[in-house]
Amino acid sequence: MAYAVRLLAQGFQTSQGQGFIRFVAKMSSIGVGLGCAALIILLSVMNGFEYELRTNLLKLIPHAEFINVDGSGINLPTDIKNKLSADARLKHVFQLNKASALLQRGNRIKSAEIVGINSDYYQAKYANLFNAADLFDINTAGNKVKPILLGEGIMQALDVEVGDKIQLLLPQTSKDLSFKAPISAWFSVVGDVKLGGELDAFIAFVNTQELGELMAFSPEMTSNIEFVLHDPFIAQSFVREYGYQFNQAVYMSSWFLTKGHLFYDIQLVRTVIYIVLFLLICIACFNVVSSLVMSVKEKSKAIAILKTMGASHKQIRQIFILKGIKSTFVGAFIGCTLGTMLSIFLPDLVNAIEMLTGWEILNAGVYFTSSIPSKVVWWNVAGTFLVAVLIGLLATLYPANKAASVKPAANLH
After folding, report:
1. SS3 311
2. CA torsion sign, 23 to 29 to 32 to 37?
3. Terminus of the chain with fewer CB atoms < 10 Å: N or C?
4. Looking at 194, 225, 255, which one is the last position of a domain?
5. 136 and 206 share one domain
6. What is the pLDDT of residues 337-381, one digit of tens each?
C-alpha cells in the first residue's frame, strides 16, 4: 500500500497542472528570481559605495582633527603627546597648516582649501597618488615664488598649466574685527592633482612650513592637528576624548561632520532596499499560495484517492510543501546566481554603456567615485537565498493544510 501511495504521489507532484495554474506557478518562480537578483545587485552596489568610502575617501580626508580658533596656532602639549603615543587606536598624528584662500590668475578667481604638507604626511597619505617632490625641494626655499600643486578642477577653472604663476590671497583676522588687507603671495604651479570626486575642485597643496610663515605662525605652531585612526568610525568619540583634555580652545572636527552624510545615506538606502525587495519577494511568494490553492481544488479527487490508499494528513501536507518549495527554490537559485554574476560584472557593463552612449552616470566632480562600484558579499547572497526559501516555505503552509483537510467522501463522486 505504501508503495502505491509513493507512486501516486510522485505522479501527482510531476503533473503541474495545465493552463492558468502552470502559468501562475512559473510567474511565481520568475517573481522570486527577479526579487532575489534585484536585491543582490542593489546590495552589491551599496556595498561597493561603502567600500569606496572606507578605502578611498577616508584615506584622503582627515579622520579627526583639532582646528585653531584664534589664529595664533596650536601645539600638542607633552602630556597629550605621551598619551597619544601609547594609544593603540591611533595610526598617525600630524601637525600641519591649512587655510581657506583665493587663487587668482588674471581676472579669474577660485576659492580653494590650501593644505600645507610635509614629507611624512605626504608619504603616509598621498605618495601613491601624485608626486610632491617639488614642494620639499630645498633649492626653492629662498625663492619668492613658492611651488604649489593644484587640483585638476582648480587648474581648469583658472585655465593654468604647469609652470604658470598664480597669486594666493589669504584673509587676515584681527581681534577687533577691523578689516585687514589679505596676505598676498605668488606661487608657481609645479603639477596637478587628481584625487577623484569633488576634492579636485577645491584642494591645493603647498609646503606646510611656507604656509605657516604666511600665516605668521612660530615654527612649533600649526593651524591643525590631524589624527589618522585604525578605525575611522571611532573618530567622533576619539576627538572629543582628547579635545576636552586640550589646554587651548580648538574646534573638534571629524569626518562624520564633513562627510558623514555619505555613510548615513548609504545605510538608509540599504535599509529601504531591504524593505522594498523583501516585500517584492513576499508578493512573488503569494503567487505560490495562489497556484497551490488552485492546484488543491483541481487535484481534490487525486488527494482523496491518496487518502483512501492510506496517505496520512502529514504525507499530503508534505507533497504540497515540496511542490511549493520546489518552485521557490528554483526561482531563488536562478535569481541569486544571475544577480551574483551581474553584480560581479556590473562595473564593466556600466563602463561599456558609458562608452557606447557617451553618457556619464556618475559625475566625477560631484561624487567621490566616478564609476558604479560593486562588491559581492557572499553572506548577502546566502541570506537572500535562505530568506526567499523560508518565505516560500511559509507560503506553502496554508495550501498544504487545506490539501490535508480534503475529505475523501466529499470528493469521490
Report:
1. coil
2. negative
3. C
4. 255
5. yes
6. 999 999 999 888 888 887 888 777 776 666 667 778 889 999 989
**What is the domain count for the chain?**
2
Tell me the three cell numbers of residue 202: 577645491
Q: What is the pLDDT of residues 163-201, one digit of tens each?
A: 899 999 988 776 666 677 788 889 999 988 888 777 888
In this structure, what C-alpha cell is assigned to residue 315? 504525507
Contact residues for 9 (Cβ-Cβ < 8 A; gap 6+):
306, 311, 315, 319
Predicted structure pTM score: 0.78
The C-alpha atoms of residue 129 and residue 56 are separated, in whole angstroms, by: 11
Domain boundary pick from 227, 255, 283:
255
Asked whether residue 217 falls in the same domain as residue 94, the answer is yes
Cβ 1 vs Cβ 309: under 8 Å: yes
Look up residue 128 and give its DSSP letter: T
Task: State the Rg of the chain over Cα.
Answer: 33
pLDDT digits (tens, 9 = 90+) for 390-405: 988 888 888 888 877 7
Roughly what angle, to the nearest 10 degrees, separates helices 235-243 and 78-85?
150
pLDDT tens, residue by residue, 148-157:
999 888 999 9
